[in-house]
Amino acid sequence: MKKAWIISLGAAVSLSACAQMAENTRDTLYPRNGNTINVSDRNDLYNVQGLPNGTDSRLNNFGYVRHQKSPIAGGMNNVGNLPTLNRERVADLISKLCVQLPHVNDVATLVTDEEVLIAYDTDTKNRFETADQVKKTALSVVPRYYHVYVADDPRMMKEIERFGRLDSNSRNIDQIIDTTIREMLKYPQGRKLSDGENENGEMINEMNDHLDRDFRDGTPIPKQTMSK
């Protein structure tokens, strides 16, 4: 009887140790959520602090994250914390970056669900080159499906400012913004981005032109519009 009790106690201790090891392993592998995988040095791949590297600051660190669908067969991936685009912060960033460009003194930026409208004040002697720099600065910030339109006219700042309190669900917002974009297209827009994209990042002669609100992408103009 005493022998059996000792065996039972030993088994309980072993199971407890295994459970503790499993708990420690789980905490080591997934310190932030159940889908983040760590490297061999146990440094979390979503690493806020970054690896120490001499006198480098955190701004110099690369970013690397790896996710599995789920570490447990049949488990659900946690998608509750997916990042979203804060349009006001993006507009703020674009304005801050553009005002650092040569000969650009004042910048107003509007970011919608698919366009960036930038009005700016400049003392440049090369309006085309400055427009190209402003446009490409904005394109470096927003997702690639965005189109960017610029105007080197301070009066256009008031024009786009009135959209600041509106949103994608505002009544007739597309038609109102389209009118402003057509006005902005009268100003220099810089170089076309590639053989397949025009100056504003609109795809040229793409298959789904009828679904895209483009303005100068090579889409044939309807006859009724041409006659006006």
Rg, please? 28 Å
The percentage of residues in β strands lies in: 5-15%
- Tally of separate helices: 6
User: What is the count of structural domains?
Assistant: 2
Q: How many beta-strand segments?
A: 3
Identify the CATH architecture of the largest domain: 2-Layer Sandwich
Average pLDDT across residues? 77
Oligomer: single chain
**What series of H and E elements makes up the topology?**
HHEEHEHHH
How far apart the termini lie comes to 103 Å
| CATH fold title of the largest domain | Alpha-Beta Plaits
Helix content: 25-40%
Strand order of the largest sheet: 1-2-3
Shape from CA axes?
A: globular
Query: Strand count, sense and closure of the main sheet?
Result: 3 strands, mixed
At the first level of CATH, what is the class of the largest domain?
A: Alpha Beta
Describe this structure in words.
By secondary structure, the chain is α+β, with helices and mostly antiparallel strands. The chain has two domains: 2-60, no CATH class; 87-205, Alpha-Beta Plaits, CATH 3.30.70. 33% of the residues lie in helices and 9% in strands. The chain contains six helices and three strands, in the order H-H-E-E-H-E-H-H-H. The protein has helices spanning 2-29, 87-98, 127-139, 155-161, 173-184, 223-226, and strands spanning 104-111, 115-122, 147-151. The protein has a three-stranded mixed beta sheet, with helices on both faces. Strand 1 and strand 2 form a beta hairpin. It starts with a helix and ends with a helix. Residues 27-31, 38-45 and 223-228 have low confidence and may be disordered.
